[in-house]
Write a structure and sequence with these properties.
Number of helices: 11
Order of helices and strands: HEHEHEHEHHHEHEHEHEH
Structural class: alpha/beta
Strand order of the largest sheet: 2-1-3-4
Shape: globular
Radius of gyration: 20 Å
Helix content: 40-55%
C-alpha cells in the first residue's frame, strides 16, 4: 500500500484508534496499523521519513506515521497506542534528536529494525546561528529542550532540506529495508535508484536556479534551512533559532531590519505549520515582502505541492524570486 495520509481527517484517525481498528481502507488514504498487515510494516516518525519509506518500499510496505498532517513535529507527544504499535512494527524510521519523545520510545522499544536517518549522513552544527542571534540563555534553552542528544552545540537535524544529504539517507534506508526484508530486496533497490534520480534532478535544479542571483541572503522564520543554504551558496538569517516556536529579542529584530537594508533583502519567509505573526511584523516594519519557504516537516492542504519534490520545487521558485535569480 503506497500510503497517502495527507487528506484523511484527524477525526477519522481518532475514531479508528478508539475502536481499535487494525485497518483503514486504502481508499481512505491512511495506512493499516503497524504489525497488522502481511506487508513490511514501517513506522515513520514524521513526513520526510514517511516519504522515504513510501518511495523506497513501494507496494511492499505499509507505512504508519507518528506525526499527523499539520502537526508541528518538534514537540510531538506519543499516545500509549502509538507506542504500542511501534513495538509491533517490522521497522521504525526516525531522525534522532528532532523529536525527543520519539527517541525515548524507540530506545525502549523492542522493534527489530531501528533506522536512524541521522546516522546515515553527516549532521552539522549550525547552532552558531542560534547562539549569535538569540543570546546565551536563549541558545542554552533550545539546546537543552530540543536537541538534548546534540551536546553543547546542537547538531542541526533539518538535513532533509538538502537533496544531496537526503539522497544519502535514502540509500541507507534502502539498504536497511533490503536486509530486513530480503524477499523484496531487488524492488527496494530499484525504487531507491528511481528516488535517487528524482533527488539528483532536484539538486541540479537548485544549483542552476540559484547560481546567479542579485543577493545571497534570505530571512526565514526559524533556522531550518542551514543545509540548503550551505549546499547552494546562500546565507540563512533566521528570526528564531532551531526552535520554530521561540520568540526573537527586540535586539534581534532591529539587527535584521538593519541587515535587510545593507544586504538588499526583499522577502521574509514564513512556514505553514507555525505562526507567521513575527515574520509579518518584521516584514511590515522593514518594508519587506513575505512568502512561504516550507521546511517540509509535514504536508497539508496548504502545502505548495503534493509531496517532497513538489514542495521543494515551490521552495526553489520562492527563493529565485526573493533573491533575484537571473
Amino acid at each position: 500500500m503506497n500510503v497517502r495520509r495527507r487528506r484523511i481527517s484527524g477525526i477519522a484517525v481518532t475514531a479508528a484508534t478508539a475502536l481499535g481498528l487494525g485497518t483503514l481502507s486504502a481508499c481512505s488514504s491512511d495506512s493499516s496499523a503497524a504489525g497488522n498487515t502481511d506487508k513490511f510494516d514501517v513506522v515513520a516518525s514524521f513526513y520526510p521519513m514517511e516519504y522515504l519509506a513510501e518511495q523506497i518500499g513501494g507496494d511492499h510496505v505499509n507505512v504508519t506515521t507518528l506525526t499527523e498532517p499539520g502537526q508541528e513535529p518538534h514537540d510531538l507527544e506519543l499516545s500509549a497506542k502509538q507506542t504500542a504499535q511501534m513495538g509491533e512494527a517490522d521497522a521504525v524510521l526516525y531522525l534522532k534528536s528532532l523529536q525527543p519523545a520519539v527517541d525515548e520510545a524507540i530506545a525502549q522499544s523492542d522493534v527489530k529494525t531501528k533506522i536512524d536517518a541521522a546516522s546515515l549522513t553527516k549532521l552539522e552544527d549550525h547552532g552558531n546561528v542560534e547562539h549569535d542571534h538569540g543570546g546565551e540563555e536563549h541558545a542554552d534553552e533550545h539546546a537543552e529542550e530540543e536537541h538534548s542528544e546534540g551536546g553543547e552545540h546542537a547538531l542541526d537535524p533539518h538535513v532533509w532540506l538538502d537533496p544531496v544529504k537526503y539522497a544519502e539517507i535514502a540509500q541507507g534506508v534502502a539498504e536497511s529495508f533490503e536486509k530486513a526484508d530480503p524477499d523484496h530486496a531487488d524492488d527496494y533497490r530499484k525504487n531507491a535508484e528511481a528516488l535517487a534520480k528524482k533527488l539528483s534532478g532536484l539538486d541540479t535544479a537548485f544549483k542552476e536556479g540559484l547560481a546567479k542571483t542579485d543577493n545571497k541572503v534570505f530571512f526565514t522564520n526559524h533556522a531550518a534551512f542551514g543545509y540548503l543554504a550551505e549546499r547552494y551558496g546562500l546565507t540563512q538569517e533566521a528570526i528564531n533559532g532551531l526552535d520554530p516556536e521561540s520568540e526573537p529579542s527586540p535586539a534581534r529584530i532591529k539587527e535584521l531590519q538593519e541587515e535587510a537594508k545593507a544586504d538588499g533583502v526583499t522577502t521574509v519567509f514564513y512556514e505553514t505549520l507555525v505562526s507567521d505573526k513575527t515574520a509579518k511584523t518584521l516584514a511590515k516594519d522593514a518594508g519587506l515582502k513575505t512568502d512561504v519557504l516550507d521546511p517540509l516537516e509535514g504536508i497539508t492542504d496548504k502545502s505548495k505541492g503534493e509531496d517532497y519534490v513538489g514542495v521543494m520545487e515551490a521552495n526553489l521558485k520562492a527563493l529565485e524570486t526573493a533573491l533575484g535569480a537571473k
